[in-house]
Write a structure and sequence with these properties.
Helix 1 runs antiparallel to helix 2, helix 6 packs across helix 8 and helix 6 packs across helix 10. The protein is mostly helical and 291 residues long. Helices cover 57% and strands 4% of the residues.
Length: 291
């Protein structure tokens, strides 16, 4: 069984992704399935019938529906691979429905909260100056954390105020930024980047190395606590806020879809629910009977 898993992982790596994290996730899911089969004295994937797989799913009932759905997607892909390339036609997933994932309203910040967060940085300190520019471009362009980590100066067109992004699945998109921010980027490049950088990455630490996703999360948490923002912040909230505020101010949803780099409009449509949440929040803050 180990050999089949390894073959499948190599196939997925070559065909669909170059992400080590994705491959590691697939490997963990398949090993979990294999260990369950072994515990039931089943020594091959083709010997797993529908009832056995249903019993395996029952061991995952502590997980969220989204996590189970992701695992089932891996197992379906695995058995499809076994049928197409290994001649193993038994597929215990046939007829088993994937649990529906509940759509959660994304967390977002009000414009005033973003301004409070960004304006509280001390530009006299190099690291805080960098962080302000970092989180500003995340909100200004709706960038993912990974896109900021990988962002290089050659992707930024300062004259036309455009950032060229290669996002998930190597999908390219163009995102503009607001007038005046090009001057801030130029100043940042002159004052901070030229002082520390050792390559073309825009956001680097004080040793010149590119920031990491975890590092950016830490920097955001640290600053939020420092200024007394009593909420759990994560960098993706700036991307959520970017989409929410554009829609709230009348942007066409298909334009927002392109700016976010979503392949499906349904992914973007979740942000239309946020406006309702925002109305409720505003009501609670303003209505006399809510006080």
């Amino acid at each position: 069984m180990d050999e089949l898993i390894e073959r499948f992982l190599k196939y997925i790596y070559r065909k669909n992704t170059q992400s080590e994290k994705t491959i590691e996730s697939y490997k963990n899911d398949l090993n979990q399935f294999k260990e369950y089969l072994t515990s039931q004295s089943i020594d091959s994937f083709e010997s797993c019938d529908r009832l056995t797989f249903m019993n395996f799913l029952a061991t995952l009932d502590h997980l969220k529906a989204s996590s189970i759905a992701r695992k089932m997607s891996v197992y379906r892909s695995f058995y499809t691979y076994l049928a197409e390339y290994m001649g193993i036609i038994e597929n215990p997933l046939i007829g088993i429905q994937t649990p529906k994932k509940s759509k959660q309203i994304p967390d977002f910040l009000f414009v005033e909260e973003i301004q409070e967060f960004l304006n509280s940085y001390n530009d006299e300190k190099d690291d805080e100056y960098r962080d302000r520019i970092l989180f500003t471009i995340m909100y200004a362009c709706g960038l993912r954390v990974s896109e900021c980590v990988n962002l290089e100066w050659k992707q930024i067109d300062l004259n036309n105020r455009i950032v060229h992004i290669r996002g998930k699945g190597d999908k390219d998109r163009i995102v503009p930024f607001y007038q005046g921010f090009e001057k801030e980027l130029l100043e940042y490049k002159s004052k901070f980047w030229t002082k520390y950088a050792i390559d073309d990455h825009v956001f680097v630490n004080l040793k010149g190395k590119s920031l990491t996703s975890r590092g950016i999360q830490y920097l955001m948490d640290k600053h939020a606590k420092k200024i007394g923002m009593h909420m759990k912040l994560h960098p993706h909230m700036l991307r959520h806020s970017f989409a929410t505020h554009l829609l709230d101010n009348g942007a066409d949803i298909r334009v927002v879809q392109e700016l976010l780099g979503h392949s499906s409009l349904s992914t973007t449509q979740i942000y239309t629910h946020v406006t309702t949440a925002q109305l409720v929040m505003a009501y609670k803050k303003a209505h006399p009977f809510e006080k």
